[in-house]
Amino acid sequence: MKHLEESDVGISFYISQLPGFRGILKQRYCDFIVNEVDSDGNVVHLTSLDAPPESMEKNETKISDQSNKGYASEIELFRSLVGDSDVECLKGLIDQVASGIEDGVSPIVLSSSSDKSHRTAVHNFFKENLKFLVTDTIDGPDTSSKCIRVRLNSGGSHNNGRNSRKRKDRRDKPFDSRGSDNWSEHVGKFLRFHLYKENKDTQEAIGLIGKMLGIQPRSFGFAGTKDKRSVSTQRIIFSNLDHT
């Protein structure tokens, strides 16, 4: 096969005496290598297909440790925000937690309030002082008021029927229903993995993974789509997804 020469395409003179160069036009998807760079400047590569080892670090607010701590000062601070009846309800909840029985600890519902700023102050109290408890807002006895529900932060979630995710059924909805139902408390809240794909769009690859795991593609987080016609590697994050 004859190679094209300059004269074959009408080139007869050069403006300099510099030596020329030759190259190959890339056409296949495997000619384009795309690797994401993380926030620390490291190039992302898929280096292993093995699951990471289980982390044995314990949560600083482990429920079993609550029995060794008193909450007199926190109770008095809480009393400055709510009435005596709500204080007694909180004491009862803390006593249940301190007994070491994690299963069957019933949530409490505080008195209704139409003051949003007051409810915000109560939410912040639990976030700052009683981190082993979590709160959410539910409908009150009338349309103009809301109630704060307080429950044990067990890290799990339970789906009470196919309509439990609808806002109208929020009374029966867990505080945080994202991710796996069987998520260990001693591991991190988010799972991060490296996605390696060939000649496939990021959204398409995520859709296939979600279909195999039975989860929605919108549950995944990533820093932009990578070229379809390429061999690319990027980081993907999911909340409470068991890596086993």
Indicate the proportion of strand residues: 15-25%
Please trace the helix and strand order, writing H or E for each element.
EHHEHEEEHEE
Number of strands: 7
Shape by Cα distribution: elongated
Span between termini: 55 Å
The low-confidence runs, each spanning 5 or more residues with pLDDT under 50, are: 56-64, 156-180
Tally of helical segments: 4
| Mean pLDDT rating | 78
SSE arrangement:
Layout: E1 33-35, H1 72-79, H2 84-98, E2 108-109, H3 116-129, E3 133-139, E4 146-152, E5 190-198, H4 202-213, E6 221-222, E7 231-239
Parallel strand pairs: 1-7
Antiparallel strand pairs: 2-4, 3-4, 5-7, 6-7
Protein name: Multisubstrate pseudouridine synthase 7
Pfam families: TruD
Biased composition (Low complexity): 153-162
Keywords:
244 residues; 4 helices; Alpha-Beta Plaits; three-stranded antiparallel beta sheet; alpha+beta; elongated
